Amino acid sequence: MGTVCAYTSVVYRVALCSRHPGYNNRHSGYAQLIAQRHLCDTKITLDMRQQTKELSAIEITSFLLQAAFSIQDFIEVNVPIDAWLKEQPGFISRHIAQETDGRISDVLLWGSVKQGTQAMHRLMDVFRDSPIHSMIDQGTVSWNVMPVRHQI
């Protein structure tokens, strides 16, 4: 049976812990955590049927550039895309990073998975002739949009 936290209205299923009885109180800081593990490794399960509000979404695209291009070339070609992204519903931020092996991670934060996915489809249509596509080694592309399950 779950316990409803008076502060969050989220149902938690908490396994009682004999070593930390204070953490079993539903009004303690512990009961308000959305976590998968108890401080003493006793399992907690959040009843996901009660979690209906999506916090936001993260879009992560990773890829390698064709050998002839640098990260700076890629960033420069993205100037019009950056301006377009700022106008899209739900857009929050964009971050581009490069690992030591050359793999680029293009990380966008969206208001929802739906907004991120719809924007990606629009982007592929609006910028279908952009030189950016020839810069990317298409065989190395990985693209995902995921709902955020925790944020601080």
Would you mind describing this structure in some detail?
The longest helix is centred in the C-terminal third of the chain and has 14 residues, at 113-126. This protein has two domains: 3-50, no CATH class; 57-147, Alpha-Beta Plaits (2-Layer Sandwich), CATH 3.30.70.100. The protein has helices at 71-77, 79-86, 113-126, 132-135, and strands spanning 3-4, 11-14, 44-46, 57-63, 91-98, 104-110, 142-147. A hairpin with a 6-residue loop joins strand 1 and strand 2 (11-14). The protein is an alpha+beta fold and 152 residues long. The chain is globular, with a radius of gyration of 21 Å.
Q: What structural class do helix, strand and pairing data support? A: alpha+beta
Helix/strand order: EEEEHHEEHHE
Main CATH class of the largest domain: Alpha Beta
What is the CATH topology of the largest domain?
A: Alpha-Beta Plaits
Structure annotation, total helices: 4
**Overall 3D geometry?**
globular
The CA-CA distance between the termini, in Å, is 28 Å
Low-confidence spans: 1-52
Oligomer: single chain
Largest sheet: 4 strands, antiparallel
Number of strands: 7
What is the mean predicted local confidence, pLDDT? Answer: 76
Q: Helical content, roughly? A: 10-25%
Q: Looking across the biggest beta sheet, what order are the strands in?
A: 5-6-4-7
Percentage of β-strand residues: 15-25%
| Rg over C-alpha atoms, rounded to the nearest angstrom | 21 Å
Q: What's the number of structural domains?
A: 2
Q: Report the CATH architecture of the largest domain.
A: 2-Layer Sandwich
